[in-house]
């Protein structure tokens, strides 16, 4: 059966390398974006809370690694399990925080916050995070790792809102932290369900245009 043009496009190694570079640079920019909050957290909170602060860049990092492991699949059961865990985390967190960031920007704008060009840049980039994760979910093999990804995402929610290290919100939403918390927790379960629905059902799909040498 011929490969559908859509699948052929996103399985092409050139496209995957382009997305890898875009996500890699976006991840670096994301951690820089969180620089002030990371510095504030380091000065005022225990150090172990630092990994829970930059939610979106970490999601982008998971997806960047997932692309790399799709391009160069690891061998052995340990490598396979690590790859599947990273893929599960990539899809769940990218969908979750992609939707979350866009929703928070628009919720702030609805309550009177100024939506600047930087906010629109974030809307585009975070929409892209969610969309690309759902596209590539069909090429990943991660379903057995979804419970661990769900546990991580839910634990992140608990730490964020019980310790006060959730991403800084627009000022107009500071009196809606409880609502944001419930929305975030709901997104955890929604994104996990989306990962299950969009995830590959028939095993791993290799990128197209890989060298034929060594194939079995």
From TrEMBL:
Domain of life: Bacteria
Classification via Pfam families: DUF1405 (PF07187)
Keyword terms: Membrane, Transmembrane, Transmembrane helix
Keyword set includes Transmembrane: yes
InterPro entries per record: DUF1405 (IPR009845)
Membrane-spanning segments: 15-34, 54-73, 85-108, 120-137
Keyword Membrane carried by entry: yes
Protein name stated in the entry: DUF1405 domain-containing protein
